[in-house]
Amino acid sequence: MSRLSASLLQWRSLLPWLVLIMWVGSFAHLLFDVQLAQNIAGLTAAAIALFALFTTSGTPRKTLIVLGGCALLVSSVSGTLAPLWNGVVRASLFASFLASLFALSALVRMSSRIESIQDTFDSQPQPGRSGVLQFLGLVFAVPLAVGAVGVVSPLISSQRTGRDRVTDASWAMRGMGLAVLFSPFTVAMGVATSASDKDLPIGWLMSCGLIMALTLFLIPFFRGQCVLPGQLRGKFSRDLIVMLGPVLLLICLNMAIVFWVDVTPLQAAVLTVLPFSLFAAGLSGTGALRLVKDHVQGAWRHFDGEIAVFVASLCFAQAVANVPAIELVVASLAGIMGPTALIILSLLMILLLAMVGVHMVVTATLFVTVFSPSMTSDVQSVFLALAALLGWSLGTMIAPGSLAFVTACRVLQVPSKKVALDINLIFSVCSLLLFALAAIMIT
Q1: Which helix (H) or strand (E) holds 182?
Q2: Are 401 and 356 a contacting pair, CB within 8 Å?
Q3: What is the pLDDT of residues 383-411, one digit of tens each?
Q4: CB 332 within 8 A of CB 348
């Protein structure tokens, strides 16, 4: 095994080209609806994941072996491999999205204002940095979802290491996670609404989600953990707006595509982020274009571990969702417990299973689908959907089973285990208890 690993490591220089082929396949499928292009993207993602089995260690390899092995076992028992292929295809799309984010991050880092912004930002006490990072994470995650990490990451300079960097990353990820509660541009909102058999009042769901997000957002400010320091206004604000100018244009372009074309924000990002970033860098000259290109290639050269996690997680999710027996077991609980208990159980199980590697798309879809018929009022239906959204939101902050969490840790360059056990763990427990109390009192 060691000789094989050493031999395969010599081929790591080819990995950026494989990632590019995967992205081109996903791009061509979305733009021209060419099935062959999607198949190429999926096969490339599967090949990179197989490559990672021999060239990575730690979480990527364990995830690939455990979840990938379970997915193969479940599919073999059910007698069909179709769910595995569906998982590979979805993984290739998500991996293409993440691959694009490195270009966006490089574009932001290329700004002439970045050094002065980082110096000013790093000089602030922790509450000031926490407040700004949580605020920017929330604001940019509404239209960009996990893509917001590509905007926030350049603020955290390389001077911040160890616990300080983990803390900064945790606050940024908290802001991004809270956007899940009300943003209409997320997979979570689509799952929460489409999985219910009720005619959910979407306006009420989004309004309640927004109130919940703002409450959880403001609590640290009232406790003094976060502030928006006055000394960051003025020049810092102007520099920040100039630095993020290209990102604001990209957001407008993405939103136009989402509203005018039948695509998700993630699909729109695959279509726009990488071409836009290269075009914007090209306008600044060949030197800027070369910097973006070198940054992207460097990131893609070590991208096999993340793709392995995506492939294993989504294959497992698709395989489990295809087993009727699991749905029957969950449905049997509905006859024993009342609606309020089912709502709280849904939140608890979505978060706990995400912590052990089961992606929220599996559990959120399963619990909302099965428990929805047991909800006897619109209020209970909304709370069930909110439970799925909150479980998904907290999962993006602390759960290794969340692809968004893995993505953010990768781009922010922080160890996922340390982030999972940092400040957001306590925050998640408190949020869960507050939601359970609200559900008991209202439903």
Answers
A1: none
A2: yes
A3: 999 999 999 999 999 998 787 888 788 88
A4: no
pLDDT (0 to 100) of residue 143 = 65
State the virtual CA torsion across 83, 88, 94, 95 in degrees, nearest 10: 160
Terminal alpha carbon distance of the chain: 57
- What is the reported pTM? 0.76
Helix/strand/coil percent split, the chain, to 5: 80, 0, 20
CA dihedral 324, 330, 336, 338 (to 10 degrees): -120
Cβ count near 222 (within 10 Å): 8
* Residue 403 φ/ψ region, left for φ over 0, alpha for ψ in the -120 to 50 degree band, beta for the rest: alpha
How many whole angstroms separate alpha carbon 145 and alpha carbon 118? Answer: 23
Mean pLDDT of 7-19: 80
DSSP 281-333: HHHT-HHHHHHHHHHHHHHHTT-HHHHHHHHHHHHHHHHHHT-HHHHHHHHHH
Region of 24 (left: φ > 0; alpha: ψ -120 to 50; beta: rest) is alpha
User: Token pair for residue 119?
Assistant: 């110096």
Give every CB contact of residue 387 below 8 A, 6+ residues apart in sequence. 343, 344, 346, 347, 350, 367, 435, 439
Tokens of 5: 């690993």
Closest by alpha carbon to 207, among 35, 389, 49? 389
CA dihedral angle for residue 151, residue 155, residue 159, residue 165, rounded to 10 degrees:
-70
- Provide the token pair at 196: 């219910």
What's the mean pLDDT when you consider all of the chain? 84
Per-residue pLDDT, 7:
62
pLDDT(292) > 70: yes
CA-to-CA separations, 327 to 80, 103, 362, 385, in angstroms, rounded: 18, 41, 11, 18
More confident residue, 272 or 106: 272
Give the position of tokens 């959907």. Answer: 385
- Mind giving me the DSSP string for 219-286? HHHHTTS----GGGSTHHHHHHHHHTHHHHHHHHHHHHHHHHSS--HHHHHHHHHHHHHHHHHHHT-H
Around Cβ 248, how many Cβ atoms within 10 Å? 13
User: Would you mind telling me the total number of residues written for the chain in this entry?
Assistant: 443
Residues 22-37: tens digit of each pLDDT: 999 999 999 999 999 9
Whether 128 shows a pLDDT value over 90: the answer reads no
- Given a contact cutoff of 8 angstroms between Cβ atoms, the answer to whether 209 and 386 are in contact is yes
Cα 361 from chain centroid (whole Å): 12
**What mean pLDDT comes out for the span 277-292?**
89
| Burial class of 126 by CB neighbour count within 10 A (0 to 12, 13 to 18, 19+) | middle
